[in-house]
Amino acid sequence: MKVLLLHPDRNFDPKAPLPPNQDTLVQDLELETLFQAMARGDKFLYQTARQALLSSLGDPTEIRYRQAILQDCLEHPEVVREIYQIPIEAIQRKQRHWMGIFSHYPSGILSSSVQLLEMFLDLLRHLKQVADEQVGQFRSAGFRRFFEMILRELDDAYFVEVENHLRELRFRNGVLLSARLGRGNEGQDYLLCKPNQPNGHWAKRIFSKQSPVYSFNIHPRDDHGARALGELRDRGLNLVANAVAQSADHIDSFISTLRQELAFYVGALNLAESLSALEMPLCLPEAFQTSERKHAFEGLYDIALALTMQKSVVGNQANADDKDLVIVTGANQGGKSTFLRSIGQAQAMMQCGLFVGAESFSANLASGLFTHYKREEDSSMKSGKLDEELARMSEIISQLRPDALVLFNESFAATNEREGAEIARQVVNALLERRIKVFFVTHQYELARGYHTQGSARHLFLRAERQPDGNRTFKLREGEPLPTSFGEDVYQKIFKPGMD
Predict the structure, then answer these.
(1) Burial class, 190, CB count within 10 angstroms (exposed 0-12 / middle 13-18 / buried 19+)
(2) Residue 466 pLDDT
(3) Among 42, 121, 329, 400, whose CB has the most other CB atoms within 10 angstroms?
């Protein structure tokens, strides 16, 4: 049995390699806040959220498959959490009672495997009951296939057969083995046999003529004899013990996979509930192929900021369809970096099949997501700030493929504006030539003006709003770059706080 709730054709791999820049993405996009909101203190949910959110899906069809399952989860959260408790209960029972990890002999392996299967049986019945009740309530292809598989594989006949086998494997009437004599009259080819079922009335069985039986008894104090008999018993049980152990492992693996895949959706429910409590909108984004150029949204906001501040935050809207380059300029403290972070968060969340923080969002998939943000000065003084920026850029370039998405935040500003703008222009031009989409937040007027002067239809220019009185709306609007970042606002705030 396969769960197939995260992928249509394979189970989720919790150990799949993550992108080399995973730590940078977590830092620059503040994804740690999202992981914590999804986990709510649960380490397993945290690990699953991190693994899934940093593992991008490369096909819109896969994303839609996962989104449909997520939509079912959002509509039936109590059912999803009930199913998720089944593997949790299995783990707790194993920790309390199961001692199979200490068994090394066939008889011990068989006994522990039987015990494990008996523990699983009640949980599988619970899962079948949920499937019976909910099979018609869920609409996604993934959940319909899952429930139908449960009802097909775990029908009443299955439970009757398993219970009969487990009862027989307790060997309450002893073990019947067959063997043949080999060289030196040593026994070989030991085989466990199934006893014949008694026929006829009990009285007839008592008084009927019995076949002759050759037997012997071991003295209660004969430790060597008992050990030898135990070894013979283990030889006969070996094949059966292995088969039962494999069956137990199969069910255990299924339940573990169910926990792993549902953990992603339970984390999504936790995050959705936290954002809904702040009255922030969520939507399932529309994903397009990597070769297309789509990027349009309304009410897009920084989820990490909303969760940190614990209140609603400002969203932005823009249409960057058919654009390769988006340059964001405007006043300091105007929301440019927050906007860039929301772009990265939405891209990562869309590509793992999650909802995004927006009223609506559509974008093409990216072959990779990269961030190049300004950093603090190197305290060790091993290199200058510009050298460090160029070294990070070189590392990013070594990983880039066509149709990637790169987010720049105040990059190459560690030198004078003319030199920094020229470096940035050459880097951006090289990326655009390789079909890489670029979002660039900058205060470098020379850089922004140069691209605006080109008048390319493939470029979009956004500007952080500043009201005449200097107040920020944290809204971004389409607009040409201005030759000022309104540094006097900062001066007035710091040096003349009491003046208008």
Answers:
(1) middle
(2) 74
(3) 329
